[in-house]
Write a structure and sequence with these properties.
This protein is α+β, with helices and mostly antiparallel strands and 462 residues long. Helices cover 33% and strands 21% of the residues. The protein contains 13 helices and 18 strands. β1 and β2 form a beta hairpin. The longest helix has 22 residues. The structure holds ligand BES and manganese (II) ion (2 copies).
Length: 462
């Protein structure tokens, strides 16, 4: 394959500017105030696919935000790669903590990104990583060396649980038929330690509501005599973990697959500095399930976390009040084999059982999905590994991630295809947080590496 370096040097500025254009569209799928922007982002993605050389690019309507589909079919006999990504982004809040406005991208260098990083919501998750694929296709089409067929499916509801994607996939199996699904929506260990994500955790996300008295009460007149929903909620949440930070929900661990000593030893070989980890987060100690290392806790073990909690008076000054209601949003990260619907039911039954008589509890499931482990003994992994070797000069390390992309297991079920996760972001890129960014080096490295995946995958498929 013709070396991409020259093409990159020539087009680098434009590649960055095009991404910046996309990042300026505040396509926040969670907030209806941005609905027109989300739709505008889908149009922008469609236009970019046509520009890059797709023969077909279309907006596919769903009951929610549209899915952008594109394809470049050069020969039906050749392998087909289906690229999945998302053009929606997380809300930018808390906005005060951003050093520059989230939808006015700027490039600044950091210790980890001396060549500069693009700061904007969605820079890494997932506009920047998705757009690497658009530019990789452009390179291969413009230089006439695309070795296989490519399809794109870019959705706009990933950050809110991909609710309409399942139906779309089930109804369009023919259109989406492929030999491998390729996703860049994860990360790697470090710029000098490439890795390929070989696992994703599942997810069950619920909201709980605890109701006490029928109205807010004076905390002097009633305090001590009626259940305070906030006190009760705090107690109930605390009871979800034991002193070893094991989750106490009966049956929660029943299907969790234990890793063998050998597998754990293999995992422990990945370079990791606990000191740097703590330093980067300004914490004195890590915290988690007894008997497991930090890297195990955040990848192969299931977890339960409160993501938000509210109720009562949170305005200025002090107001003496016992609130009528208290709320929390709780996520459980699951490992392969744990069924997210089953876990949601177990949570509901257990959480309700924790409530004292003086309150009522409502558990509302939000969304969820299954975990996934990718095989490493197939052609797709081999092709990806070789691609990294070519452009990083190092063999990538297989590593299971703690994040979730629930539709990956659904793709396997509906389309019978495996997924390969080639992520180029870093954990320090602050996805979902203020000051999200994506290294310019990482962006260009992705564009450089992806074409080799196509080449090696096609060769190995012969
Ligand atoms: N791209 C992330 C998932 C991710 C990030 C996986 C880094 C591995 C490494 C994705 O956009 C995401 O945020 N997923 C959500 C779940 C979704 C159902 C809202 C998550 O993991 O919280
Ligand atoms: Mn993502
Ligand atoms: Mn995300």
């Amino acid at each position: 394959m013709q070396d991409i370096s020259e093409y990159l040097v020539k087009n680098k500025e434009r590649f960055i500017n095009e991404l910046i254009h996309l990042l300026k569209i505040p396509s926040v799928s969670a907030d209806p105030a941005y609905s027109q922007d989300v739709i505008n982002a889908s149009e922008a993605v469609k236009a970019s696919l046509l520009e890059a050389g797709c023969d077909i690019a279309e907006i596919c309507e769903t009951n929610g935000y549209p899915i952008v589909y594109g394809e470049k079919i050069i020969n039906p006999e050749l392998p087909t790669v289906l690229v999945y990504g998302h053009y929606d982004v997380q809300p930018a809040d808390p906005i005060d903590l951003w050093n520059s406005p989230p939808f006015e991208p700027i490039i600044k260098s950091t210790d980890i990104h001396p060549e500069g990083a693009i700061f904007a919501r969605g820079a890494c998750d997932d506009k920047g990583q998705m757009y690497m694929h658009v530019k990789a296709l452009e390179f291969m089409v413009k230089t006439n060396q695309l070795p296989c067929n490519v399809k794109f499916m870019i959705e706009g509801e990933e950050e809110v649980g991909s609710e309409n994607l399942g139906t779309f996939v089930a109804e369009n199996k023919e259109k989406l038929a492929n030999d491998i699904i390729l996703i860049s929506d994860t990360g790697m260990i470090a710029n000098n330690v490439p890795s390929i994500t070989t696992g994703l955790r599942g997810l069950s996300y619920v909201e709980v509501e605890v109701t006490g008295p029928n109205r807010d009460l004076h905390s002097g007149l009633y305090g001590g005599a009626v259940a305070n929903p906030i006190n009760v909620l705090a107690k109930m949440i605390a009871a979800l973990h034991d002193e070893n930070n094991h989750i106490t929900i009966p049956g929660f661990y029943d299907k969790v697959e234990g890793l063998s000593k050998e597998e754990r030893a293999e995992m422990a070989k990945a370079p990791f500095s606990l000191e740097n980890y703590k330093k980067a987060l300004d914490i004195k100690a890590v915290y988690g399930e007894k008997g497991y290392t930090t890297n195990e806790r955040n990848s192969i073990r299931p977890t339960l976390d409160v993501n938000g909690i509210w109720g009562g008076y949170i305005g200025a000054g002090a107001k003496t009040v016992i609130a009528s209601k208290a709320y929390a949003k709780i996520s459980m990260r699951l490992v392969p084999n744990q069924d997210w619907k089953e876990i949601t039911d177990l949570f509901k039954t257990h959480f309700e059982s924790l409530a004292p008589e003086g309150v009522t509890v409502k558990v509302t499931p939000h969304h969820g999905g299954q975990g996934y482990v990718t095989p490493i003994d197939n052609n797709a992994y081999k092709a990806a590994s070789k691609a990294y070797e070519t452009t990083f000069g190092k063999t990538p390390i297989p590593q299971r991630s703690g994040g979730s992309i629930p539709i990956v297991s659904l793709f396997e079920k509906e389309l019978k295809s495996k997924t390969i996760l080639m992520g180029f972001g870093l954990d320090s890129d602050a996805i979902h947080s203020p000051n999200e960014h994506f290294g310019v080096w990482n962006y260009l490295k992705g564009i450089e590496t992806i074409p080799y995946f196509y080449q090696y995958f096609t060769e190995l498929s012969k």
